[in-house]
TrEMBL record:
Bias (Pro residues): 1-12
Annotated protein name in UniProt: Uncharacterized protein
Region (Disordered): 1-21
Top-level lineage group: Bacteria
Length: 21
């Protein structure tokens, strides 16, 4: 069977720490 790929991967701690606009 084909493994389902997660379209939205969990953001890395570094990305989460980055302040958004």
């Amino acid at each position: 069977p084909i493994p389902t790929v997660n379209p939205t991967p969990t953001p890395t701690p570094e990305e989460t720490a980055s302040p958004g606009p």
